[in-house]
Amino acid sequence: MYDIVVVGGGVIGGMILRELTRYRLNVCLVEKENDVCMGQSKANSGIVHAGFDAQVGTLKAKFNVLGNRMMPKVAKELGVKYVNNGSLVVAFSDEEVKTLEQLKQRGEQNGVEGLEIIDRQKLAQIEPNISGKAVGALLAKSGGIICPYELTIAAIGNAMDNGAHLETNFEVVKIEGEYPEYLLFAADGRQITAKAVVNCAGINSQKIANLVGDEYFTVGGRRGEYMLLDRESGDLVNHTLFFTPTKLGKGILVSKTVDGNVILGPTAEDVDFNDTSTTSQGLNSVAEKAKAMCDNVPFYNVITSFSGVRAYCDRHDFIIEQSPQKRGFFHVAGIESPGLTSAPAIAEYVVNELIGGLFELKPNQNFNPNREPDYFFKNLTAEEKNKLIKSNPAYGKIVCRCEQITEGEIIRALTVNPKATDVDGVKRRTRAGMGRCQGGFCQPYVAEIIAKELGVCLCDVTKSGGESKLLTGESK
Ligand SMILES: Cc1cc2nc3c(=O)[nH]c(=O)nc-3n(C[C@H](O)[C@H](O)[C@H](O)COP(=O)(O)OP(=O)(O)OC[C@H]3O[C@@H](n4cnc5c(N)ncnc54)[C@H](O)[C@@H]3O)c2cc1C
For the chain, which domains are there? Predict the structure, then answer.
C-alpha cells in the first residue's frame, strides 16, 4: 500500500509528487493518459505571472507571488529553461492608465515587487514594435516565461528518480474506503491502495471529488486558442505584453517563449471539457488583437496553432483543502491561471500543511533536487560536442534539423524518467518536431528510433497513444 497517491500528472500533481519525495513516504502518481502532462499543463501561455492580477486575499494571489519567487530556483534544479523577461500591461487610453494604477496598487498589496508605470516614450524604447496607439504600461520586472511541459515532465522525472512510482493509462473511475485505506479503481480494472489521496485531476477534479461524495464545487472548461510563430520572429517583442483588463476580461497576450518563438493568444470560450480544437473564428480574433498590440506582426511565420482548456471553478479561486467529509482526501482542484506559476508554492503548502497534518514528514536523506536537462546538444561548445559524439556516436546524428535535436537526445527521452513512448512524447521532451517544418522531415525517423529502442513494430508506434498509429500497414 502507498502512503499517498496523487491523481493527475499535470504541473500541480507533478510538483506535489516531487515535494513528497523530499520525505520518507511511499508515493505514486496515477495518470489517465499514456503520458504525463496531457491536460492544461501542456497547452498554456507559459507565463510566470508577477501576481498583480489576482484579488487581494485570495489563494491565487498568495501562491502566485510565492510561486513567482520560487520559480528561478526550481527551474535551475530541474534543468528547465526560465527567462525573467518582465511583463507589460499596455494601456491604450487615459481611462486604461487609471486601471494600471489600480493594478499596481493591487500588486503591491499582494506583495509584488518592482512594479512601475511607464510612459509612451519609455514603452516605445523597450518595445520598438508596440502599436503607435499605446499610451503607457505597467511594467512588472518579476514577470517571466517558462516551458510548461518541460517543467511538468522534469518535476515528475525528478520525483521518480527520488523513488516515486508512476502509473500511466490509469483512469480513476471509482474510489472506495477511507483513511487509512483508500482503494482506487482504474477503468481497465487495475487497483491501487493508499492511505491518503491528492486530487489534482485538472478539469476532471470535480469528477474525482464526486467519486468520494464531495459535491460542493463545480469545475467547467474554458478554451483558449493560440498561434505560434517561428523563432525567426523572436525579436518582435522583449517582454510579455498584456492588454489592460476590461469587464470583458484580460484579452490576449503577445510574448516570446523560452525557446525564442512568439506566442499569440489565448481566446476565452466556454466549451466541452475535451474540446481542444482550434477555429478560424478564434484564430482570426487572436490575429486582430495581436495587430492592435504590435506593428509588424509577421503572420507569414505562423508555424502552428493549438488550444488548451482551462479548469475554471465556481469558487473563482483555487480549491486547496482536505475533503470536509473524507479524512486524508485532499482536493487541489480548479487550478486555473496562474496555476503554472503557483505550482511550486502550492506543492510546498500541500505537503507541509495538509499532508504534514496526517504523516510525520521525515526527511529523505537521498533526495536529489537536481535533474539533467532533456535536450542540450545545440547549446554545447564545439569541443563539448566532439567529446560527446566520441563517447556516444548517436549524438553525432541530427534528426530534427529545425531544432537541431540529435538521435542521442531522442534515445535519452525514451530511457530517462518519465520515459516517452510515442512521437508527441519525444517531441515534448526534446523539441524534435517543434520547429518550422513541424515534424515534416523528422517524424518518420523519430518513429523508427522509437520502434527500434522500444522493440516494437513500426506499425505500432503512435503519435499520441491510443489509436493514433502513424502507419496503417505495409505497402511493400
Ligand atoms: C489556455 C490556458 C492558458 C494558461 N496560461 C497560464 C499562464 O500563462 N501562466 C500560469 O501560471 N498558468 C496558466 N494557465 C493555467 C495552468 O495551465 C493551470 O493552472 C495548470 O496547468 C493546472 O495544472 P493541473 O495539474 O491542475 O491540471 P492539468 O495539467 O490539466 O493536469 C490534470 C491531469 O489529470 C489527469 N486526469 C484527469 N482525470 C483523471 C482521472 N480520472 N484519473 C487519472 N488522471 C486524470 C489529466 O489527464 C491531466 O494530465 C493557463 C491555462 C490554460 C488552459
Answer: 1-83+145-218+314-373 (3.50.50.60), 87-141+220-310 (3.30.9.10), 377-460 (1.10.10)
